[in-house]
Structures are given as C-alpha cells and as structure tokens.
Amino acid sequence: MGDIGKNAVKITTIPEQEVVFSLYKSEDKVYARSVSGLYNNWRWVMVWATQLFFYGVPWLQWDGRQAMLFDLEGMRFYVFGLIFHPQDLIYLAFLLIVSALSLFLFTAIAGRLWCGYTCPQTVYTEIYMWMEQKIEGDRIARMRLDDSKWNLNKVTRKSLKQFAWITFGLWTGVTFVGYFTPMRELVPSLMQFQAGGWETFWVCFYGFATYGNAGYMREQVCKYMCPYARFQSAMFDGDTMTVTYDEARGEPRGARSKKASENVNGLGSCIDCNICVQVCPTGIDIRNGLQYECIGCGACIDACDDVMEKMGYARGLIKYTTQNGMDNRWSRQQMWARLLRPRVLIYTTILMTMVLGMGVGIYYKPDFRLDVLRDRAVMARYSNDGKIENVYNLKLENETEVVRDYDLKVTGLPELAIHFSDNNAQQIKALKPFEKRNVIVEVQLPDGETRAGSHKIFFEMTDIQAKETIREKSVFIVPSN
Questions:
Q1: What element of type H or E holds 471?
Q2: Nearest-5° angle of CA 303, CA 306, CA 309?
Q3: Residue 1 pLDDT grade (very low, low, confident, very high; cuts 50, 70, 90)
Q4: Strand 368-374 and strand 381-382: pairing?
Q5: Read out DSSP for 400-426?
Q6: DSSP codes, 336-367
Q7: What's the pLDDT tens digit per position in 27-80?
Q8: Distances from the Cα of 197 to the Cα of 68, 168, 189, 201, angstroms
Q9: CA 369-370-371 angle, 5° bins
Q10: Residue 6: per-residue pLDDT
C-alpha cells in the first residue's frame, strides 16, 4: 500500500461486528436556579403583560360580541371595531411582513431579547418553573427530590406539580380555542361535555403542547427546534447588543475569601462561583463566549451583579453590551451613537413604510364591496325606446354589523342611466348585516351619443349612512350600425 500520510487514521473493521454512532448527545437536566434583579423583574413584567392580554381578551365584549374572534365558520375575523373577510387576506400578509421586519430590526439592535422576554416558549417555561419551585422547592431541593427514592413526600409533590401543570396547560388550550369559538359559549359547553369534536381536540392538543414544551422540553425547544437560533447570526454585527462576559476584567478566574481584594494574587474579578451557569435557563456558561443557545434573558447578569455586590466589587462583569463596545471600551453613550447605523436605518425605513401603508389601508378600507360583471351572453342591445343597453350583474356585500342603504350611479359617458331589471331601486336598500346580494341592472345610453366600440365606465356605490363611496371600473359596448 502507498503512504497514507501522518494525519490519516487507519480504521480496521471487524467482520460481523455492528458499530453504532449516536447522532444525539444526551444532556443532563437543567435545574435553573431562581434569581432576582432588574432583568428578572422585567421578564415578569412581560409575563404578566402578555398573559393578561392572551387570557383576558377572549372575555372582552364589543358591541354585543366577542372583541377578538376569528370566526372560521362564518369566514369573518373580528378585531375589536374592525371586521376582516377572506378577501382582506392582504392585511394578513402585511402583518406577517411587518412582524418579520420587526424581528430583524430588533435583533440587529438588541440580539435575542425577544426570546428572553416575550417568546411564548420563554414565558410559559417561566410560569411552569415558578409552579415547580413553589411545589418542589429551590434548585437544591428539586435535585435532591429527583434523586431520592419514591416515598409519600415525593409522590405528593410530584402529583401536585403534575396537577398544576396539566390544569394550566388545559386552560391555555381553552383560551386558545376561545379565539375561534366564542369563549362564553365554549366554556359552558366544555363543562357540560357538549363541546364539538374539533373544539375538544384542539383544547387537548394545545394544552398538551404547552404542558410538554414548557414542562419538559424547555431549553430543548430553544436549542434544537427553534429555527430563529440558527439564523440569528445573519442579523448580528459588531454593534448588536448581547449578553457579554468581560473576559479582560474577569480572567483569570478563581475562588477567594470574601474579604480578599478584587485582584488578589493576580486573579480577575470572576470568583468562579458558577452561579451564572446555575441560573441560565438553557444551561450554558456565558464565560465561554456568545453561543447560539443564549436567549438574552439577562438572568446571568442579575446573578453576577448580586455576587459582585456581596464581594464589594463593581457590577457589570456580565452585562448587555456590543462586541465593538467591549473591544474598544466604549461608554454607553458611544454605543448608543452606533445605533443609527445603515442596517438599522434600512430596516427602520422599510418597517415604518409597511406599517404606515397597512394603517392607511385599514383606515380607508370600505365597509361594503361592489363587484361588477358584464353579461357575456349579450354584448349590447337596443331597448324598446331605441336606447343602447348593456346588462351587468352587480354583487353587493354589506360587511358591517348593521343594516345599510346604498346609492348607485354610473359615470364615464354623457347621458348614461341605470335601469333596474325589475324597476325596483330597493334592491340596493336595506342590506342586512353581512348580506350578499346580486342585482341585475341595465345601463342605457341614447343612440348616437358616442362612437361605436368599447368605452370605459365607472359604477359608484355610496353608503348613505357613512358617506363612503367605492368605485368599480367596467366597459360599455356601443354597437356599430
């Protein structure tokens, strides 16, 4: 055989011996330590804000109906005073684009603060961990309980925890379904075991998902299932604010007496207590540098600041800062000055344009619709009194929750006039809430008023009560003699 090189590895295979390679690395369970401080307080502010909205909105009433309801059966979506229909799907597309751009902008400025403070996975994990702590005790108590043999105390605590987790998960499922089925109808039907199959399925499915993700999978969702952790680095640059360990100040780390000075024996400020690792919800060591598992929650900052205060050292060994700010030892004012960099300005300009366009579109969205279809069977004809006549099928739709009256006229050619097929102009009056109505109209033009051919005309429909007008284009055919 030829020379295989000094860095090559020779592999000898043994006949009939199966070699198994594991593609999954088993990891120890993360027992996150409780922490207090500024950023922990902000996390709980966001927990309360998001959950009060989520659990409270389905119970709000607006003009005799649920304030926010996505009525799939009726194909209507109520958002407080706004009503959207399937044809308004463009607004959903705008909303998704705005959400994506907001995420890009926020990530470019402040990293993964969305993940650390408002992501549903983080919020529900925080709630489930709080219940676990209240029932099973602090970090050490939970570890001892899990390692202990099964006894009355362990069975009682584990059972209470499971009951609390399952109850909260199911109520979360009920609330989720309450956005699609009126909450004040859903809850009584569930309590009386009269809910439909789909409602029951989604309550259980969403409840189980909450229970599993927040109770058991926790950091595994962030590390292995969430795509955001994988592509976030594409939006980072040297001026993106992240949770950072001040290595120049902290190293070399080492334990010491509480009475020792900060740099005793040539040591850095880090006393190697590992509390920053113990409080991390994803179980990483931020002292090893920024990692994709870091969700930017700031728990390690609160923990480290608390330790620094007890040691009598300056806070900020771990802090929110930028890579450029850390390397150049910039002040906070200098870092804020880098906020208005090209990437941020571009994201902000596009985002504000989209938000403004969406807002204007919703503000001027009419509460009724008019679709005009020409009668293709007859291009043009002459009426009994010698006028040229084209027939149109008008599809009217009242998208409001009250009865509406409308006025209709046609423009584009002189002497145009609308003639209703049954001589009853009341066809465009008294449209009931969400009623759709087809109206056949004949548009007449005196013979000889204009040249032969196709002419552009406009149907103008006006809501008499709201004084709103919409305009739809069509064509009028004048036959050649």
A1: strand 468-478
A2: 150
A3: very low
A4: unpaired
A5: SSS-B-EEEEEESSTT-EEEETTS-GG
A6: HHTTS-HHHHHHHHHHHHHHHHHHHHHHT--S
A7: 688 999 999 999 999 999 999 999 999 999 999 999 889 999 999 888 899 999
A8: 23, 21, 11, 6
A9: 125
A10: 43
Best CATH choice for the domain 368-478 from the list 3.30.1490.20, 3.40.50.720, 2.60.40.10, 3.40.190.10: 2.60.40.10
For 32, counting Cβ atoms within 10 Å of its Cβ (0-12 exposed, 13-18 middle, 19+ buried), the class is buried
Q: Is the pTM of this model over 0.90?
A: no
Tokens of 207: 């409840």
Place of tokens 């004040």: 184
CA–CA distances in Å: residue 339 to residues 122, 232, 314, 336: 27, 18, 26, 5
Nearest to 216 by CA among 34, 29, 23: 29
pLDDT grade for 337, boundaries at 50, 70 and 90: confident
Q: What is the dihedral of CA 293, 296, 298, 303, to 10 degrees?
A: 20
Q: Which amino acid is at 73?
A: E
Name 474's bridge partners: 457
Token pair listed for 414 = 């002189």
What H or E segment, with its residue span, contains residue 389? strand 388-398
Q: 3-class SS at 5?
A: coil
Give the helix/strand (H/E) hosting 97.
Answer: helix 89-110
Per-residue tokens: 191: 């309590």
Q: Whole-angstrom Cα distance, residue 454 to residue 457? A: 10
Beta strand 61-62 with 453-463 is unpaired
> Any residues with CB less than 8 A from the CB of 28 and at least 6 apart, and which?
283
In this structure, the number of other CB atoms found within 10 A of the CB of residue 377 comes to: 6
Tell me the C-alpha distance between 131 and 210, whole Å: 14
Angle between helices 152-177 and 139-147 (to 10 degrees): 110
pLDDT tens digits along 394-434: 999 998 889 999 999 999 998 898 887 665 666 788 899 99
Cα gap 479→460, rounded to integer Å: 24
- Amino acid making up residue 322: T
> Rounded distance, CA 443 to CA 247, Å?
81
Strand intervals (E) in 12-134: 61-62, 65-66, 68-71, 76-79, 82-84
**Domain residues of the chain, as ranges?**
1-363, 368-478
Residue 352 pLDDT greater than 90, yes or no:
yes
| Cis before 188 (ω within 30) | no
Q: What would the pLDDT profile of 94-153 be if each residue is shown by its tens digit?
A: 999 999 899 889 999 988 889 999 999 999 999 999 999 999 999 999 999 999 999 999
